[in-house]
Write a structure and sequence with these properties.
Pfam family, one: Pex2_Pex12
Number of helices: 11
Strand content: 5-15%
EC number: 2.3.2.36
Structural class: mainly alpha
Shape: elongated
Number of domains: 2
InterPro entries: PEX2/10, Pex_N, Znf_RING, Znf_RING/FYVE/PHD, Znf_RING_CS
Strand order of the largest sheet: 1-2
Enzyme class: transferase
Order of helices and strands: HHHHEHHHHEHHEEHEE
GO molecular function, one term: zinc ion binding
Length: 276
């Protein structure tokens, strides 16, 4: 067992992992129940959430004195007793009580009382987080109320952050930000068309020019491949979404159909009749 002081980021990561595990289980539960009649799960959703949360705590805190998120990071509670385990379980039931009372629609006094309790807990959580950021211990309010301390469950090497590592991370994050802003501005259709014209082995496909076009339920947009929204055409037999066609023509005045490579300057964007 190590006496190394836990980093704040490690404790916060454990809380984040616990929340993600709970959300993942709830998503699986919703996926398995989507074939049930509509509204079948909604009335008992608070109970299902409580069962999942208590099951996670029973199989983690009650057995190993650490949550699953803490186990993934090799940390645990050092002074967890059976009485504190029971209080820990009850402390995680407040959200269920609050949601269930909202569903039952009790009297105005009860609602006001629960709202005041909720606001007090929010304030206490804020104060506790401020203390945690200052001292680096007990990130959760329930941990501070029960006096729970965290420690490494196994011997771990201390984490050292060198300036070289931090500089590399900052450089990489800056590069990602640049890509996020630049990639949407690149007109890859224009680049592809230019490269295709310089390819001596490229053969332009044949296309059929139609006087009228119709769209059925099986028609797909030649650009995005989805069902066309506000169907339009550019002179060939293919159908586009209005936004797909107009957006590409605005970005590239020589935009061609991505399927047949047709471009008709006289017919840039025209409506398509729809057959139901």
């Amino acid at each position: 067992m190590s006496n190394d002081k836990l980093l704040r980021v490690t404790q916060m990561n454990a809380i984040f992992l616990d929340n993600e595990i709970y959300k993942a289980l709830m998503r699986i539960l919703h996926e398995t129940s989507r074939f049930l009649p509509p509204g079948y799960i909604a009335p008992i959703e608070p109970e299902l959430g409580l069962i999942v949360r208590l099951a996670l705590l029973k199989n983690s805190v009650c057995r190993n004195e650490s949550t699953f998120g803490q186990q993934l990071l090799s940390i645990k509670y050092s002074n967890m007793s059976n009485f504190k385990k029971i209080l820990y379980l009850f402390g995680n039931c407040f959200d269920y009580v609050k949601h269930r009372l909202e569903f039952w629609k009790p009297s105005h006094k009860v609602n006001t009382f629960m709202f005041k309790i909720h606001m007090v807990l929010v304030l206490l959580n804020f104060i506790n987080m401020s203390i945690f950021l200052r001292r680096g211990v007990k990130p959760l309010l329930i941990e501070r109320c029960l006096g729970l301390n965290q420690e490494y469950s196994t011997k771990t090497a201390p984490r050292h952050f060198e300036a070289k590592y931090l500089s590399r991370e900052l450089l990489w994050n800056g590069f990602i930000d640049v890509l996020i802003h630049i990639i949407p501005l690149i007109n890859y259709h224009k680049i592809k068309r230019t490269m295709r014209h310089f390819n001596p082995f490229h053969k332009k496909p044949t296309y059929v020019v139609l006087n009228s076009r119709t769209m059925t339920m099986h028609s797909k947009c030649a650009h995005c491949g989805e069902n066309p929204i506000l169907p339009h055409h550019m002179g060939c037999a293919h159908v586009f979404c209005y936004v797909c066609l107009k957006g590409n023509q605005t970005a590239d005045s020589k935009y061609e159909c991505p399927i047949c490579e047709h471009r008709n300057p006289n017919v840039l964007c025209d409506k398509v009749s729809v057959i139901s």
